[in-house]
Design goal:
Blueprint: E1 2-8, E2 17-23, H1 30-40, E3 44-51, E4 54-60, E5 65-66, H2 70-82, E6 92-96, E7 99-106, E8 109-115, E9 120-121, H3 126-132, E10 138-141, E11 146-149, H4 153-158, H5 163-166, E12 174-179, E13 187-193, E14 198-201, H6 208-219, E15 223-228, E16 234-241, E17 244-249, E18 251-258
Parallel strand pairs: 2-3, 4-6, 11-12, 13-15
Antiparallel strand pairs: 1-2, 1-18, 3-4, 4-5, 6-7, 7-8, 8-17, 9-10, 10-11, 12-13, 13-14, 15-16, 16-17
Length: about 270
């Protein structure tokens, strides 16, 4: 049972979004995975094991299992190629709670094929506005997260949410976004998930499944270069194609360890 830590959506160590990746031979016990994720205490820990035509992949925050995670998928594909489990010209194919996801290497970048998430404009609940402490120009809901557009990039970067108030939302997962003021990027964002035990996620691939279609409708573009403006920061390329979103990013391995015998649970 090899356990890796990978910084995703970056080419520099100690930036981007760190994810743990646990390589397994077969399906583990769910409670064991949750305990490992709690021990790692990163926004997500990924667990992968081989299947006949690909790999099973599941993601856990320190508190709960999640249905879709971009940066830990990127980290998992990166490790499969780097560790020699997959040849670099072979795609990484994952079966997940969000269906089949495919990753491919494109030079130093990894491209992920994810489902598009569409946003419906919605009246904001009080806990959302009170928690963000901002004046939005748009509020929408995807069914699994809120998307809030602010006036400008400065408002996104300076936002200081009340996470306790946001946690009162029935769905306490919130994206804030604005057009970028830099010519290097098309839009910026930040992501808050107190409902999953993550006050602010450094770089959130799955959020861009909603951000891509939203900015496509607003700007009439299909291809974007985005920046998630957390303290660590990270770069995501986004291409919207019908009901799919292709997310691109880079990754850097930070550490590799082997779980001690006392930490290994029987494999179910």
């Amino acid at each position: 049972m090899d356990l890796f830590v990978v910084d995703a959506f970056t080419d520099q160590p100690f930036t981007g979004n760190p994810a743990a990746v646990c390589l397994l031979e077969s399906a583990p016990d769910l409670s064991w995975m949750q305990r490992i994720a709690g021990e790692m205490n990163l926004s997500e820990t990924a667990f992968i094991h081989p299947r006949r035509d690909g790999f099973a992949l599941r993601w856990f925050t320190p508190a709960v299992e999640v249905e879709l995670c971009g940066h830990a998928t990127l980290a998992s594909a990166h490790i499969l190629w780097e560790a020699g489990v997959l040849a670099e010209d072979r795609p990484a194919i994952f079966d997940t709670l969000s269906g089949r996801l495919t990753c491919r290497r494109e030079g130093a970048w990894i491209q992920m094929n994810f489902p598009a998430l569409h946003t419906v404009e919605t009246s904001p609940p009080d806990a959302l506005l009170d928690g963000l402490r901002v004046d939005p120009i748009y509020v929408g809901f995807t069914g699994c997260r809120w998307l809030v557009e602010l006036n400008d990039e400065t408002a996104v970067r300076k936002s200081r949410p009340d996470f306790g108030r946001l946690a009162e939302l029935d769905v306490a997962h919130v994206i804030i976004t604005a057009q970028s003021e830099s010519p290097d990027f098309d839009f910026v964002s930040r992501y808050f998930a107190p409902g999953a035990g993550i006050p602010e996620d450094p770089v959130t691939g799955s959020a861009h499944c909603a951000l891509g279609p939203y900015w496509q409708a607003k700007l009439g573009m299909t291809d974007f270069r985005a920046y998630q403006a957390s303290a660590r920061g990270g770069v995501v390329t986004v291409s919207v194609r019908s009901d799919r979103v292709f997310l691109g990013g880079q990754a850097v391995t930070i550490s590799r360890a082997e779980l001690a015998d006392s930490c290994r649970r029987p494999i179910s």
